[in-house]
Amino acid sequence: MRALQWTGPETVVVNDIPVPDIGPNDLLIRVGAAGVCHSDLTLVNFPIQLREDPLTLGHEIAGTIEAIGSDVTGREIGERGVVYLFWTCGVCRECVSGNENVCLAAGRVAMPPCPGLTMEGGMAEYVRIPAGTFVPIGDLDFIQAAPVADAALTAYHAIRGTKDVLRPGGTAVAIGIGGLGHAALQILHAISGVRVIAVDSAPEKLELAAACGADVSILAADDTAEQILDLTDGRGAEAVFDFVGVDSTAKLAVETVAPNGAYRMVGIGDGNPGITAGPAGGPGLPWGATVRKSLGGTRSDLHACVALAQAGKLHMEVERFDLAEGPDAFQRLDKGLIRGRAVLVP
Ligand code: NAD
Ligand code: ZN
Description:
By secondary structure, this protein is of the alpha/beta class.
């Protein structure tokens, strides 16, 4: 089969590799579509060789069940679905509490095992998955469904965790209107009554933000914090979601979140928000505000996102590429040229 593989720093190529074998508790999925996440790009651009063997990329996977392991019950060949991206232990205290996204199997600060990032992924004609990670999608289009498995899931999880502060009359800010951000705008509208402010450094992304229901769109500049404070009577936004995570956006989040508000770090740009334990009065984090480093989402969050997509309340803006064009999709993403999500079709 053909697979898009990461073979070394800044190198992705289409290789011919064997169709994976499956174990008794696995499914073999014929991939219908696989989304390209900025995290894939961060991995590919990592400056040093992290492993010797090529890695098949792809953690946003939608497809059809092609074969079923001998011990799997309750699944049928031909069923259509998406793949939950964390292949967790299922028995640690976080997993059994429904917080699989912070499964302890990989340790306190690592990411749980994830196809396409820590093991063979779905940018290929077929992928082996643990049967329990399959979530049915009915007749939802694969190209729509694939990015729901991470871009929407991660946005949804970050937003769901702030529901206590998201009340009608309040404001939410989304910084970075790419794959995750454009899903976040729609999810905020679907599940909360807040006004939504979108921020991006690229003008064309603000046009996408408006199409996704942003009430106000702001081009990132030196006065962005001032503009958001003006729009919120100086109080700030009840929730700020940073889908970029570099120094400037982390600082913007700290400077614009309201007292008792929620600042969620989702983008992994290594940004330093510069939070100190000093008293109020400066430009720092206001009293009562919470900060959470948000990773992916739970299995139940994925079911919720599939339901939103099936109900027509979440529409992923996608650019479609054949698997063979995968390297071009990565280049376009690197240049900031993708509108919404790039999705590969094998
Ligand atoms: P993307 O490339 O599709 O979108 C990024 C957006 O941010 C673009 O619209 C870009 O114009 C904008 N942007 C870049 N720099 C900016 C700045 N300084 N100010 C304002 N806007 C800026 O990326 P994506 O796939 O949506 O991923 C977003 C981030 O989230 C990445 O860092 C990715 O690695 C991370 N991510 C985290 C998780 C998680 O679980 N925490 C999951 C998936 C992705
Ligand atoms: Zn991702």
